[in-house]
Amino acid sequence: MKKIMIASQNKGKIIEYEYWLKPLGYTVYSLLDFPIGTIDETGDDFKTNALIKARALSNHLQFTVLADDSGLLVDALNGLPGVHSRRFSESGTDHANNIKLLRVMENIANRHAKFVCVIALLIPNQEPMFFEGTVYGTIHTVIEGNKGFGYDPLFIPEGYHETFGTLNETVKHNISHRKKAFKQCLDYLMTLEHKN
Ligand code: IMP
Fold this sequence. Notes:
Elements: E1 2-6, H1 11-21, E2 26-30, H2 46-58, E3 64-74, H3 94-104, E4 112-122, E5 129-139, E6 155-157, H4 169-175, H5 177-195
Helix pairs in contact: 4-5
Residues 10, 41, 69-72, 85-86, 97, 115, 148-152, 176, 178 line the site of inosinic acid (IMP).
């Protein structure tokens, strides 16, 4: 049986990984099955934080751990909220984060932004591997849709006219920053399977 631990308690992320991994025969676990308390994301960049999360879990497990760190980078805000995406507003709820982003961008015409995701993959007895994905888009002027999570109701991916919050979920599953990082990660996992 192929087992993988997603080092996250973010239901939105876990749903996305399950969507990709279950059809490939993986039994998917997450921090929701294995609560180890809060992991302090003390790094200054996505890669460091992804590794911190993966290591926090791999110390307890004998199978593969996948952790991602991700966030929204807004051009006009010099890359903010970036690594602080989850705690951008005081309460840190998705809704409060979206409201704050709309407020700080009220008079800003340049709405260009991107989501970035870095995956850290820790396979027992191997060096960590990293995979990165980006999706470009713009920040909408109103909150639209209730699909996905985080800033999805504000993010209009390039080539579309609706937010990730409104678009059919399969669109996000196929073009997102997480999917792009995951695709590379999967290719790597496949090369290992062929070697064994
Ligand atoms: P973390 O990677 O769990 O530390 O959280 C990153 C934060 O970035 C999330 O809580 C969201 O606010 C935001 N974020 C990351 N990926 C996405 C996404 O796919 N959609 C919407 N927001 C996201």
